Amino acid sequence: MTTSFEPTVDVNRNILEMEYAVRGPIPQRAAELQEQGRSVIFCNIGNPQALSQPPMTYYRQVLSLVEDPSKIQRERQLKDVFEENPLSSLREEDFIPDDVLDVSANIIHMMKTGMGAYTESKGVRFIREAVARFIDRRDDVERIGGVKSVPEKIFMTSGASEGVRFVVDLLIANENDGIMIPIPQYPLYSASIKRAGGVQVNYYPDESNDWAFNREMLQDALTEAKKVGVNVNGIVVINPGNPTGALQSRQSIDEVIQFAEENQLVIIADEVYQENIYAGEFISFAKALGDQKVPLFSLHSISKGYYGECGHRGGYLEVRNPPKVRGSEFDFMDLLLKQASVNLCSNTAGQVLTYLMVSPPAEGSQSYAKFVEEKHQTLSDLCEKAAMIREAFKQMDGVECFGKTGAMYLFPRLNKLPEGTTDFDYCMALLEETGLCTVNGSGFGQRDGTHHLRIAFLPSKSLLEEVLPRWIAFHNRYVRG
Question: For residue 328, what pLDDT is reported?
Fold first, then answer.
């Protein structure tokens, strides 16, 4: 006699209750429509190469050579043959430049055990040294002074997300421990806090003031958390913002540092969009911090910027002023190393691409001109596409978009929605009618009574020219009933 058996298991409730809107119901429905043969434009996530942004030639040439070193010698031999045979139909530009061959050979030499072996848990030493030099150049440490970056306090990570989890998991020791996050926020932070069993403490940047934040809003959030027994340990700042794209001023950054110092909080500075600046100036938290003793965890990634290497999962976590660990012989760096060691190491392709991100071709080298041309083309295209979408908003009834353009996103406010509907309803209807996949503002958090959506301005200009009129027509029909 056979009986039906359906196995069940108890699971971690924190993981069961996590939400991640950028991969949520709307993108899932978009995937279903695509399976049915519908044309879908995926603007739900910052995934540039999925929307035809070309990779940087220099990065891919080096990566291909370090993955298959035999090609370096073969390329040099072919070039020798070409130079000995002037009648060849090949041209100099048909070969990989010498500086790329040299850089690739040097990386292989410095890696010592190749691309297929585990590295140190923190990542390859020479790559961490290159990251430290990059940070010092970026922050102009030699000229204006400041605290130099230390390779031993840098961890190579499989994307910035891994670094976030390292820090959040350590800061949430009890169920009443909390971390302050900006609302709206990238849902990695709410999900990571939920997964660790902690409390999400919301603070609300001023939307009408270009999403700036000030001391009063930070203090209000902290005070309310303390009233209900939450022990706040840290504060997250995303600069430039995700989902808002907002670029924070030096004044806002200084406000956060002073607030963190006075309330003994650590700062988690998500700076993965630091290259996506189309107006204004990026100021890192490390530069603003100087020699102040506030604990700072800074994150960067190869997924964004002009490189867009999301799938290769590379990045780094830099630590300044690591806090002491209460009641333990270990310090915070020991525990970060323990976490990294459990993972063995971040992937080597991501580490190499991070090295290339922080060590671009030298000015005057064979690869330099093409590299700069591709970089400027990518960033200017992103800026133009953002402007196209912003211009379309002006033709949509009741749509406002605040803040300077930064990162890869726009976060317009939908001031007129039919009674009884939400921004989720709007985004789902937009998808069904136009094929444009966006994310509802409620998936990132927002002030009560407001509605938004986030769109990544990554599709090609020709694709935007095709879809924006359809969006305008849909919007005005939808909100006017």
Answer: 80
Q: Look at the domain 13-51+371-480 and name its fold.
A: Aspartate Aminotransferase, domain 1 (3.90.1150)
Residue 243: cis peptide before it, omega within 30 degrees of 0? yes
pLDDT of residue 335: 86
Contact 398, 438 (CB under 8 A): no
Predicted TM-score (pTM) of the model is 0.90
Q: What is the pLDDT of residues 426-475, one digit of tens each?
A: 999 999 999 999 999 988 889 989 999 999 999 999 999 999 999 999 99
Is CATH 3.40.640.10 what the domain over 125-358 is classified as, yes or no? yes
- Cβ(188)–Cβ(268) below 8 Å: no
Q: Alpha helix locations (H) across 303-419?
A: 332-342, 348-358, 368-393
pLDDT of residue 193: 92
Q: How far apart are CA 107 and CA 127, in angstroms?
A: 9
Give the Cα separation of 225 and 232 in Å (integer).
7
Dihedral over Cα of 397, 398, 404, 407: its sign: negative
DSSP type of residue 93: G
Measured distance CA(243)–CA(238) in Å, rounded: 9
Task: Give the domain ranges of the chain.
Answer: 13-51+371-480, 125-358
Q: What is the DSSP string of 239-305?
A: SS-TTT-----HHHHHHHHHHHHHTT-EEEEE-TTTT-BSSS----HHHHHTT----EEEEEESSST
Q: Which residue has the tokens 């002023």?
A: 321
pLDDT of residue 79: 74
Give the residues across from 232 on adjacent strands. Answer: 178
Burial of 455 (0-12, 13-18, 19+ CB in 10 A): buried
Residues in the chain where the model's pLDDT stays below 50:
none
Tokens of 458: 């990554």
For residue 354, give the 3-state DSSP assignment: helix
Asked whether the domain spanning 125-358 has the same topology as the one spanning 13-51+371-480, the reply is no
For residue 336, the model assigns a pLDDT of 87
User: Rg (Cα) of the chain, in Å, rounded?
Assistant: 24
Residues in the chain: 481
480 burial (CB, 10 Å; 0-12 / 13-18 / 19+) is exposed
| Per-residue model confidence as pLDDT tens digits over 314-370 | 999 999 999 888 878 888 888 888 888 888 888 899 999 999 999 999 999 989 999
Predicted local confidence at residue 476, as pLDDT: 95
Tell me which residue of 330, 429, 358, 453 sits closest to 33, measured CA to CA. 429
Count of beta carbons in the 10 Å neighbourhood of residue 440: 25
